[in-house]
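In response to the reviewer comment on reproducibility (Comment 2.3), we provide here a single inverse folding case reported in full, input and output, so that an independent group could reproduce the run without further information from us. The structure tokens appear first.
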């Protein structure tokens, strides 16, 4: 049976297109996984700071005045290159407003 030229050409185009599509799907999934991990890390840090502030209140009777106090006395470690922590204190007996934000491009 004689092969037609367009069958060979079609095969020559389908294989690279399928490989490109597979790579595109792989890299999209990888980017989503990375974003998910970064978001989980950010959320975990915020939760850790809240728990440390609550522990400080339970032990000392006041919420910590700033994040540096938590780092010094409660062992909190913050990667300041990756995150910015907004820690707003209203009163020593009210839970501070804590927000963790990811910094720009790394």
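Designed residues, in position order:
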């Amino acid at each position: 049976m004689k092969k037609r030229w367009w069958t060979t050409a079609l095969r020559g185009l389908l294989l690279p297109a399928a490989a490109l599509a597979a790579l595109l799907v792989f890299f999209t999934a990888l980017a989503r996984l990375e974003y998910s991990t970064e978001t989980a890390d950010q959320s975990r840090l915020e939760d850790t700071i809240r728990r440390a502030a609550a522990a400080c209140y339970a032990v000392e009777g006041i919420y910590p005045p700033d994040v540096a106090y938590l780092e010094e006395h409660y062992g909190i470690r913050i990667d300041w290159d990756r995150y910015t922590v907004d820690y707003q204190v209203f009163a020593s007996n009210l839970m501070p407003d804590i927000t963790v934000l990811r910094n720009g491009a790394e």
